[in-house]
Amino acid sequence: MRGKCTIKKPKNPITYVKRHNKQHKINKTTNAKSTVTIKTCTKREDCKRACDKRHYCLYCSQAQSNISRHLERKHSEIKEVAYAFGFPLRSKERKNLLEQLRNKGDLKHNAEVLEKGRGQIVTCKQPSDKADVTDYWPCPDCFGMFRKNYLWRHQSSCKTKKCVKDDKKSTRGRVQSRAACLLPILASSDGCQKIINNMRQDDVSFHIRRDSLICKYGESLYAKHGRVKSRHQYIAQRMRELGRFMLAAKDMDKSVNGLEDLCAPSKFQLVVNIAKRLTQFSPGKNEYGKPSTAVKIGFCLKGAVEVMIGQALMNDDDLAEKKAKIFFELLEKNWRNSVSITAHQTIQEKRWNKEDDIPLTKNVIALRDHLRMVEDEARGELMQQMSLRAYKALNETVLAQVIIFNKRREGEASRLTLEDYKKASTSAINKDIYETLSQLEKELSKLLTRIEIRGKRGKKVPVFLTERMKESIDLLVKMREEAGVPAENPYLFARPGVMTNIRGCDCLRKYAEESKAENPELLRSTKLRKQVATLCQLLDLSEQELEQVARFMGHDIRVHRDFYRQTDKTFQIAKISKLLFSNGARHRDLKREEPRYASSFSMW
């Protein structure tokens, strides 16, 4: 007898609809808060591992317990699959090719999970306990997911890498950098993606990849500064500041997923609290442990909100535009009182009573003599035969002398290009001005070679080269190919075998210690620039001459007076103390008859 199928209807339809809506709301909330997890191994009742691991097909994205059988039955017509099954059963070639297809399918699935922000990551070796998703990275050769700290160890046993001949020796850091290129990034421009991939791969960079607003902010910075390669580090620093800010935000509020969630008027107080926590704010002392970070966070937040406003305008989203503009207005008005003023005060107070000495002239001369001695030895050795050690020594000493002679920022001199050097000119620019010069100034102008380079904030700044420097640089240019400097390397002070330049700060630090000068830590490019600005006071330069000095240094005359020119303590104490001890006497009388005021001095 066929049984009757009965359907139980709810007694009250309204109650059913409310319950259904409530359950749908709960499921929607649960899905929104779900996070990315790692598939861990499960154990049966007999404490043995259960065979419940699933791999994802590269072509249909379905989870399969036996991926090789699935490929043979469903996708045998595909070229890569047919080629793999063309090898004999249980052969190494067949096993390696099927393993690559399996890892590629898992990597495709893992990338989709990371982009969505929810799901389960499949790794090559399942961990026994819960693991953090940021600890696993894909192998750049076989595409399998391994622990980031042990990825370098896997490289020695990677079967795919052994099959491919690669003469380049990859280090631990380069393996992680190559692995990071396989992970999804929400940034669209190739330049911004390259900057993120070249970052230190940690929790901060992992969040930056998944935060759309931080990536868009990085793209806006790259559109502005991307042409200058030296500014790429600046872009990475700004993005990492927002990344660290978001990690602190997630610790304080678990509902926050991205920077866009915080850029709302109702979240402004939370943003201020996060900034104070990240910068080690002390409520009792009302000061910041990291005041400069607090200032930078406010600057980066304003830039990110401006990008958010632009996106809302392009998408014609009036509600998002209104919220972003209100939040930006809060940053403009309230951030200053809540964070910036106290942070700037903390920075200024830390500079009080801080020794800011400048190098003495005798120490600069000692460093110059030592550099010339090393330069002569290296040049003599290169004249006889090619030596990488001598080439490096000559390269470093000439760069250090260029920095010391011109008082340039070390980065500006280090990034001097070969093309700019070839365009250098020794002739006077304006003959009318040349005729007004003194005989000494005319002779000096003939001895120096002038090169115009890019300075801070895109300003054009000059670099002068003496005949001695020019002879050494000509030898370096002549020996570039023999030293192994790539022809594509644009820098004049290039490093052999790579596309980068040597760093001037390293050269000054190294040879300052070797010169046995007093206080070698003062022989740095910034200290040397402050020494010139301070000694200009002794020359009693006119306003026009002082402006020329500031322009040559690559900054404004106000910056020259307020920041570079240091107040000499000895001069200040000697002059001002006379005024204080005189007890109201005129300075002229004090200078003429100092013994007369002996009683005033003894009073103190």
Can you walk through the features of this model?
This protein is mainly alpha-helical and 604 residues long. The strands form five sheets. The chain has a two-stranded parallel sheet with strand order 1-4. It has a two-stranded antiparallel sheet with strand order 2-3. A two-stranded antiparallel ribbon has the order 5-6. 59% of the residues lie in helices and 5% in strands. The radius of gyration is 34 Å and the shape is globular. The chain has four domains: 36-180, no CATH class; 190-351, no CATH class; 361-541, hpI Integrase, Chain A (Orthogonal Bundle), CATH 1.10.443; 569-603, no CATH class. Mean pLDDT is 82; it is low at 1-34, 165-172 and 596-604.
The third-level CATH topology of the largest domain is hpI Integrase, Chain A
Strand order, biggest sheet?
A: 1-4
Strand fraction equals 5-15%
Under the CATH scheme, which architecture of the largest domain would be assigned? Orthogonal Bundle
Whole-angstrom Rg: 34 Å
- Counting DSSP E segments of at least 2 residues, the number of strands comes to 10
- Average pLDDT, rounded to a whole number, is 82
Total helical segments: 30
* Uncertain stretches of 5 or more adjacent residues: 1-34, 165-172, 596-604
Which structural class fits the helix and strand makeup? Answer: mainly alpha
Query: Percent range for helical residues?
Result: 55-70%
Largest sheet: 2 strands, parallel
N-C termini distance? 121 Å
Shape: globular
Give the CATH class of the largest domain: Mainly Alpha
Number of domains: 4
